[in-house]
Amino acid sequence: MGFWDYLSSRHQQLLTDAVQHASAVFQCMVIATVLGILIGVVTYRSGWAAALAITSTSTVLTIPSLAMIGLLIPLVGLGVAPTVVTLTLYGLLPIVRNAIVGLRGVDPSLVDAAKGIGMSRPARLLRVELPLAWPPILTGIRVSTQMLMGIAAIAAYASGPGLGNEIFRGIASLGSANAINQVLAGTLGIVVLALLFDAAYVLIGRLTIPRGIRV
Q: How far is CA 145 from the centre of its chain?
């Protein structure tokens, strides 16, 4: 069976896997973004705390994703749980690092001016510092998303959702008629999803970042 014939015959299952893959990455990115920004806000004013946050989250990336999922299976079982935990942990580093860099890069005179007109600390953070730090934070989110698209495929090892199931089925049946088609379909599906997510982030950037800051 040719590749296009395979896609035609399996399009419904491939579409379901693609939706599950995108949903898993999106939901984990939401969690990682909230946690990453919170960690950045809490630590960026302290040199040692920021270094500890970056070192801790970067250490996670030294653990092979397959090993991470394998270690989590006895703790949280198979399926969605190890996928969510793994993807969230792997997605933290670029967001934490860029949040710290972005917040530290805010012009102190702007913060002082906001303080001078009576803004409270939370108001300065929400209305001045975070909006100005948003461009590098968004870049960190884009990098994390691209990483998680590929890592999410490994979730199939723990019966997780997504296009990784197609790839693993193909690898498990190497030598059969459709093995290469399965691996290729899963891989190309992940590439297409990654491009669509990145295009969405470009649009979000244009809508949320003032032109002067973009330039």
A: 3
